[in-house]
């Protein structure tokens, strides 16, 4: 409960013994409180260092933050140039720390449908309050486009995946680096030949019809990497599993990827977003649980979109010998798969060799109208928004696109004209959203990107490849960079208007996220993080310290952060950033007269853990 000055009771007048007892009681309370305060300092291990005032213009207090919030009683970060904060280094085994998909916590969760691999974030008392160290020998990544084919071994020093997958040509260790020859379980002749065959089966991959794709069980993302040169943006998805760092390898190569698994929760992607989804022997049991996983693919695919499957049970007639099964079992699985997909209104579009392609109907009204909440498969009712995707359980039902969604899919231009496309039903879901508002937003970010490049020449060069826009609405910042050698992960707040569908309609990619939690990625995976008004928007929910520590975990050493916000928040950000060993400079925005919005451009330094010094 909050009190105002008017709520305070007036002090009663008059003397007497009662009034003389008040100062004694206050002194007693003060001494008790001070004793408790000193005990708190020495019991938590927090130290305060006072620098010699003769050596500095002002006395500076340094707050050394404990490793875990379990050790904290309180930590107030003041807006003062005279107060500094220091964060300790995390232990060496935190170098691949993923807070919300931490294998050390898996035993706390059930095995049902591998749900322990989903997001399970630590509660606030268990959060690590420290700086994640780089591996020993880490150095700035190889720059794009060379990085697509090789990366430094010391940056992702994982030998298990090399020893287990080298025979399938996923990767191989060559001296001080890993090389990626472009092989895979289902494409021994190389990913290029595999995608060539796929493009022959799906002509839309060649003419801009297919722009966004989802790769489930992506390995080291060679499929998504090959598609980049064909003008197709892929979200490569893999869990944190025993393959060790599939997603980290992908991002180290400069290929879009996030940690995730199709299990019990929806993917953090709106309905009708992907032009294509792909599984190359991804080991997802598509026909189990009543086809639940297929229903999630059906939800995220755009009307007219394609689902591509290679591996069991495709081409079982020639492949079953190597799958430790029988031809009868594989035939039965293939028949079940075809029946389930037909029941969801898919049609078998093409099949050749190891690849089969199904298509979701562009209209499909006659088929969807036959489904009801009691048929098998069932048709989803309207109780849950099909675009809601943040910690939303998957539903065992088919998501029938609305008439407006089907009409919009028919009108969708091919890439690159699609970048300026405005789907009115999606845009109108944003408060104040309209076609003119989106065009105004694009103009704003075009000017902003030009200004950013003048202040930060690395943006637009090969020094910056992986970019995250932490708080986007329409994807305007990403659209302004579409001709640069970068890709942008557009993040739409799970607590704000869900405009992520607009981003995908434009041919861009992204995810929903709540910045009070850790992002679904490995440490050191992005070159630039852009935060537009993030702290103003989330200050009532998320503690600034944890958001900034998460940014530090995600940023590559030598990476950059552009923080655009109210000066009130930038003062606090600068204080915490200094404690994370960042260097920051403050600038005007492209609109110099705007005093309510300023820029903080920060650079993360490459440092060596003390344990290795």
UniProtKB/TrEMBL annotation:
Keywords: Glycoprotein, Membrane, Methyltransferase, Signal-anchor, Transferase, Transmembrane, Transmembrane helix. Its main location: membrane. InterPro entries: Put_SAM_MeTrfase (IPR004159), SAM-dependent_MTases_sf (IPR029063). One of its GO terms (biological process) is methylation. Pfam families: Methyltransf_29. One of its GO terms (cellular component) is membrane. It is a single-pass type II membrane protein. The chain crosses the membrane at residues 21-42. It is an enzyme of class 2 (transferase). PANTHER family: METHYLTRANSFERASE PMT21-RELATED, SAM-DEPENDENT METHYLTRANSFERASE. Belongs to the methyltransferase superfamily. This is Methyltransferase. It comes from Lolium multiflorum.
